[in-house]
Design a protein that fits this description.
110 residues, alpha+beta, three-stranded antiparallel sheet, 7 helices, 3 strands, 14% strand
Length: 110
């Protein structure tokens, strides 16, 4: 959480709280492999309520309602987080956010 505040992303934290996702991102008891999570999100798409991604060449398909149960978070609005069209942010802003969140300042593409 401190990282997001240091990066000036308090609005992001506020939105996570309002949408019920805050505990997911602040629960330090959850274990995950950071490169696998990055690969998951790099490959994710949502179409007609089904989330599809690949990690280590393994296809993952799950509907958003099931994902909500697995993660213990609300499903409403999930498709907005992972939608393909991110033009609303603008390419420069999206790149800056991707650099901050990934901690890779040399990143060239969001």
């Amino acid at each position: 959480m401190g990282y997001f505040q240091e990066q000036g992303l308090e609005v992001f934290l506020d939105k996570m709280k309002a949408q019920g996702w805050f505990k997911l991102f602040t629960n330090t008891q959850l274990r995950c492999c950071q490169p696998d999570v990055a690969e998951f999100y790099a490959n994710v798409s949502v179409s007609e309520g089904v989330l599809t991604s690949t990690v280590n060449r393994v296809l993952i398909e799950v509907d958003v309602r099931t994902l909500r149960v697995i993660l213990g978070i609300p499903a409403t609005g999930f498709d907005l987080y992972v939608r393909e069209d991110k033009s609303l942010l603008g390419k420069a802003r999206l790149l800056k956010l991707a650099q901050r969140l990934s901690q890779q300042l040399g990143l060239k593409n969001p």
